[in-house]
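Figure S7 source data.
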Amino acid sequence: MERRCSPASFQELEVIMTKKKAREIYKSLLQRYPQATCQLKHTSPFELLIATILSAQATDVSVNKASPELFKTFPTPKAFADTTPEEIEPFISSIGLFRSKAKSVFEASKRIEEVYGGKVPDTMNELVTLRGVARKTANVVLGNAMGKNEGVVVDTHVSRLSLRFGLSQETKPIKIEQDLMSLFPQENWTTLSHLLIRHGRDVCKKRGGTCKTDPICKRYCSNAKS
Ligand code: SF4
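Tokens for the predicted iron/sulfur cluster complex:
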């Protein structure tokens, strides 16, 4: 007698298939980019926090150019808190949106100094109370400077590739992050974002992606198959 799958078992089957595909994608990307890591130069959680605030809608390269002099002049949260946003501005004027970022850096440092005793807090709930810090920045700091896989960093590359690799159909970063968290083991969350960002930067450029020739793309991306 023919056995029919119920709608629930079809859904379960789909989840199993997507998880299998997610595992394969992760393995392929890791083989391709074994050194994929955070591109923002930093020597402490505080420096990474500031660098990540500065990197919003700007390139990591531009932040890495400005940050050494900035951190030399203001080496601690107290040093930033004791100055003014106007005094921070000249050090970051080559980075987009530098005026509002100077305010964020100043306010975030002040709060770290006054509320958290000069130490960057190590929980999502506390980090997002700092000016200029939302879930994405908090995930960068927790994952890369504190060894905590609290979530997946969802930037423009991660959003784009999640859709193209069929890992999420969502458009909002928070929803994409939830989908990725359900598909990949927690210990891989930080590395996963590095891998997707690296593939996005190296291969899946906005224009001229190697859709028909790259082996990973050919296998997993909907664009390569169209
Ligand atoms: S196939 Fe094209 S669109 Fe898809 S990931 Fe590769 S380069 Fe990007």
